[in-house]
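Reopening closed ticket. The problem is back. First fold of the pair:
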Amino acid sequence: MTERNLDFDRIVNRKNTRCIKYDFAAENGYPEDVLPLWVADMDFRTSSFVEDALAELTRHNIYGYSDTRPGDGFFEAVSGWMRRHHHWETDPAWHVKIPGVCFAIAAAIRGLTAPGDAVIIQEPVYHPFGSLILQNGRKKVSSDLIRDAEKTYRMDYDDFEKKIIENNVKMFILCNPHNPVGRVWTGEELRRIGRICAEHRVIVFSDEIHSDFVWEGEHQVFQEADPSFRNITITATAPSKTFNLAGLQQSNIFIPDSGLRQSFTEELHRTGLDEPTIFGITAAQAAYEKGETWYETMKAYIRKNICFAEAFIRDRLPGTEMKKPEGTYLLWVDFRGTGLNAAELEEMIVHKARLWLNSGSVFGRAGEGFQRINAACPQSILREALERLERALLS
């Protein structure tokens, strides 16, 4: 069989499908007719091999409690993907199946730190990091990224270590590659930050959910940047971003250290949600085993979208700037040159351009004046969104 779902120009109507991206504008305070390019899922149909595997599963027509074990093909599919794409040899003993990465972050915070402990992040960063820290009764600390003269974000190692010491930080949530700024951290950057964590006995939760979207450089698995990092690291991966499977709730957590793994799994058991769904594991296995052609074609399409957006923003959106992301399918656009304050910018984007984007302020104070735009959609949709911005800025 060959892959059937390779038409990424095709517009699929997602309205009235209980889709968070398209069906919940009013509930979130937006006009019903906004064009949404906010939440990080794709407007593409996933691999036909996933489609076929799920169709076969539905015909079985019994959907009881389910699980996987080494030797049944699931872990082999996951580990094979990691080996082929990230040169990473994983061990079945490290592997914990979990519904989602945010669920895993919350479990790690509760299971590996105590109420009131400090957890450090690097803003601007994926906003659930901060909210999960606070909602679970911990102290949020940010060592903000530095944006240099070349518009590239860097880690502030001195500030990072200073804040760890001052706040007695117990955990670091790393975004690798970084959402929303699009950095693909190098091995040297990860070793420097990791050695600070190791010296101060800080556990690292490395969110690597965007690792399959790298445009410049190569993804470095954090725990493999230095062999000693295995003792302090929880690594989160998932097929959800790569194959557009977020609604099936299947992620893969790798914890080499047995003590960390035990504490994490004990917390997982306390939640009462410790078994995967049969749909999630079936889709993930099919994607990792047979979705290679779809994945490579999809990546090539998104790369073209990013290049298209970069040129459009440079040439036609006055007062804005976008540095091409090294990784992820998310555009991080600087609107500060428009001269609009936060309220005026929101008014222009939502009510004049009729767009639903992610305001940079939700990613932390360091994101103010920016907007995050999802480029994983048919180019006609991306073009329409940028043309709406153009008309709104020039009117």
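Second fold of the pair, where the issue appears:
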Amino acid sequence: MKQHYDIVVIGGGMVGASLACALLPASEDLDLNIAVVETHPMPTQDSLQYQPSYDSRATALAYGSRSIYEIMGVWDTLQEHLAPIKQIHVSDRGHFGVTHLHAEQEKVPALGYVVENQWLGRVLLDRLQQDDAKRVDFICPAEVIDVEYGAEQMGVSLRQGDEEHQISCELVVMADGGRSELRERMGISYSHTTYEQHAVIANISPDRPHQDIAYERFTDTGPMALLPLEDEGGMHRCGLVWTVPDEQIGEVMALDDQAFIERLHERFGYRAGNFTKVGERHSYPLKLVLAEEQVRQGLVVLGNAAHALHPIAGQGYNLALRGVVALADKLIKARKKKINLGDLEVLQAFYDQQRTDQQRTIGFSDQTMKLFSNRNPLLSVGRNLGLQMLDVCPPARTLFARSAMGLDMPAPELK
């Protein structure tokens, strides 16, 4: 542990590790020293191997996120264990509207990818343990107990076991997820909008291959998604995200496996085949959470620590990843100009750039969920006509697909 770093990243999960990977290629030339503080122990090299599990949680990566991980140099390893999304089928239960998106028609190898969180995390951590990553120090297990502001640098207080340490840096990046007591102590406030819904998460096996098709199905009680996963143990797997009203969540979670599958078929149908097995189920309440302050002098809030949105369309992590590389790009350019990395003008320019992306992505998720949950007959006809028009109008479909893939904005250089 050094006494001073240029950047201290609080949180070594997918967002924090991705930021370190994004800065890594420029770190040697720019004499950039980075600390990643994580509450969990650093895994050993032996544990950084792929260990399949039927119940692994997964994340949907837009095609644009593939490009980001290619720039970081981790994509070749990452693609060893993931499932491509080559088709997306969007439908409205009980209504005529339907839209199909095809990777071949959009001239891309895949519209997106589904990767298990454990594998993505291991690939990122493995990259940060390679010989050329000497500029990145993992301080773990450790807890950040305080952050102090200074004119030119920040003070960070750490606790490791019974010992406390003090380090300094130009910039603190908070990427410690959506439940941070530290942010509350620092007076960072949030706006909350509840959807009065829970997301039920589980992996499920159909009786036939998923053929790389992702399904987004809107119902009168909320949307549901079925994402292709890599087969495991000879069984086909899909990742289920099922939105359930708060008043029904207890009943749905209490169903035995067979009753759960029957209820799922009643809501989803049989377009993906017959479901034969469901894994461990989890649920969490759905709400839109947005930090009212994402940058301060010497401080940036990233990922779920900055925003949490409805899982409809699977855009949450992709939005966070775009924020990661946008920040890395700004920091690299500032360093080349010998500007302090915690300079408020630099950080405000980053936030101004990302605010438009956040407003658009969060607004799309929020308004789409509300539109397809509304039972007004006129709105129902309108939204289904919209789905049908999207399906038969190639220019509109391509515009929509490119936006969903994150290809409607320039990629950062990171150099």
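Update: turned out to be a display glitch only; the data is intact. The chain has one domain: 4-45+53-191+287-404. The two ends are 27 Å apart (CA to CA). Please close again.
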